[in-house]
Amino acid sequence: MTAGSAAMYQAMTTMGLAAESGYKGRIKLEGDPKGASVLILGAGLAGMTAALELRQAGYKVKILEYNNRAGGRNWTVRGGDTFSELGGGKQTCEFEEGLYVNLGPWRIPYHHNGLLDYCKRLGVKLEPFQQINHNAFLHSSTAFGGKPQRVRDIKTDFQGHTSELLAKVAQKGKLEGDVTKEDQEMLLEALKSWGALDKDYAYAKGLTSAEYRGYEKDPGGGLGAAPVPGDPIGLSDILKSKLWGSLANFALYEFQTTMFQPVGGMGKVGEAFAKEVGDLITFNAKVTKIDQDEKGVTVTYEDTTKPGAMQEASADWCICTIPLTILSQIEVKVSGAMQAAIAAVPYASSVKVGLQFKRRFWEEDDLIFGGVSYTDLPITQISYPSTGFNMTGKGVLLGCYTWNGPNSYEFTALSPQDRVKRAVEYGSQIHPQYKDEFENGVSWAWHRSPYTLGCAGDWTEEARHEHYDNLCQLDGRIMLAGEHASYIPAWQEGAILSALNAIGRLHKRVLQG
């Protein structure tokens, strides 16, 4: 999410996009299910979480998966991978060995306790993911002559100027009645420290502000080693640039440090789950019908490697993790309330572009080691790799990540190759080295994904109020799970928590007989 204001954060919280994980520890499915069987639809993280726990509890489990791989949206693309999207766009990744891009989820907040626990349990090694890098860029095509500004400069100068203004108000006694005189004095000292103000409570060019925003000439050694402070950017210029809006991306709860990523790509999580439950998965299984009666559930599916070859799978119960965009087009025998809930949730549009370059110029030329740069250009952001620091050789950037809105739909309408081309053109406005250093790239538009038709459930507050509980109910012998059935949509944590909640309730129902 690239929210740029407190108002957007409030809206995200309302819709569940910034909610805290409700993970309370590993689930305990105690009691004998007496040979009950469960058919799971989808081998994403929700489906595989359910399969892992249910089998350990004594259930007979089978998974049907549309793709020829496990993981669903948990997907890392490496050199040699070939994939196609709706519309016929076929790509073969040409990244050098060891390089990759996460076209699905790419970072893990420290408070996503469920996912972190499964990573620990399954042996998935993690490393820090850098969201904030004070030396990355904030860019506006209409401000500062289109020249990117360092996050550090905008953040420190904006903070300094606002601290000076508040200090002036406090000094004039305008806060009397709101804070005590003693608190007012402490507030002034706090503002001096927080805002890098001088002895006169002014934010100005000098060694004090330079200790926070950096120097025009850094301290050195020997003769001529004295540092030279830089000139702060004026408050009016910062306000007019609107670059301050992007600072929220570093303060939001879901993006606060420490964030993590699996060593070798996010796909390592899906691979670790598949190592545990892969023997339960039937791949290339396109579900076409879900039926149920008082005795069990029967699912009709097509083997996509043999078009027209229809098969059936049956079980006592069914956990369906198929995205609602797909499920709404399948014949499903559930109540009218659940049918309405399935049809009520549109999916967000998202596009990602991974770009390989001849060298890690962002480190060598710009001293940007990890982190994210934000821009008002259609690519919206550039994420620098949080691994392989200070090494020679090639590197891969996430050169575009859109989320809903005109930019996302515009990129979705382009061919994969044209998306890559546009990402290079736009990115060169921030990093001129792009055009000389670019080698190859891949892209993925999630609304063209044949197994999701979108990135993630895009709930509104009204839709949640009317349909969420109906979506999550055990409807006869069928229960839904996935990020769409959580208050943390678009995050893997939501998928895992949804699955755990579903199987916990299902297990209670089974024990009741």
Basic shape: globular
Strand order of the largest sheet: 14-2-1-18-25
Number of strands: 25
How many separate helices? 17
Name the average pLDDT.
95
Residues in helix, %: 25-40%
Low-confidence spans? 1-17
Distance between the termini: 44 Å
Structural class based on helices, strands and sheet pairing? alpha/beta
| Rg (CA only) | 26 Å
Largest sheet: 5 strands, parallel
Which percent band covers the strand fraction? 15-25%
Question: How would you concisely characterize the structure shown here?
Answer:
Helix content is 33%, strand content 21%. The protein is an alpha/beta fold and 513 residues long.
Topology at a glance:
Elements: H1 6-15, E1 37-41, H2 45-56, E2 60-64, E3 76-78, E4 82-85, E5 89-92, E6 100-102, E7 108-109, H3 113-122, E8 126-129, E9 137-139, E10 149-150, H4 151-171, H5 181-194, H6 207-213, E11 215-217, E12 228-229, H7 235-241, H8 248-251, E13 259-262, H9 267-277, E14 281-282, E15 285-292, E16 297-303, E17 310-315, E18 317-320, H10 324-327, E19 331-332, H11 336-343, E20 350-357, H12 361-364, E21 371-375, E22 381-384, E23 395-403, H13 405-413, H14 416-427, H15 434-437, E24 438-445, H16 461-472, E25 478-480, H17 492-512
Parallel strand pairs: 1-2, 1-18, 2-14, 9-21, 15-19, 18-25
Antiparallel strand pairs: 3-6, 4-5, 7-13, 8-13, 9-10, 11-12, 15-16, 16-17, 20-23, 20-24, 21-22
Helix pairs in contact: 2-9, 2-17, 4-5, 11-16
